[in-house]
Amino acid sequence: MLMIVMGVILLLFVFMIGVLYFRLHALPERFAHKKVQFEIVCVLALLAMFTHMHIFWIAGLLLALIEFPDFSTPLSRIAGSTEKIASKEPGEGTDQMTPGDVAVTKQPEVLPEVEGATRKLRSV
Questions:
Q1: What residue spans define the domains of the chain?
Q2: With a cut of 70, which residues of the chain have pLDDT below it?
Q3: Which residues contact 98 (CB under 8 A, 6 or more apart)?
């Protein structure tokens, strides 16, 4: 009877150690902030678990603790403001442009006084 009790305790102990091991390896994944960062941290955690190289786990933990700044929101706001200045609805100009579309503008005329002043400056 004592042998059966010790066997059950041993199995529970091994099971609890396994749960602790997997929770420890999932720790960086819980800290990840954004989707791309989460995916990179998951890959590093899997590499660490299957290769038994702790550097991948440490890199994943450090990467998860760093919060990357959001670059897409300011850039999309700049694009929307530029479209508003161009009197277009946001997102309207992207569908209509093709790589062959190039705006050709006429060179502005230069006044004779300005042209003479630039010649004098160049000669100095």
A1: 28-67
A2: 88-124
A3: none
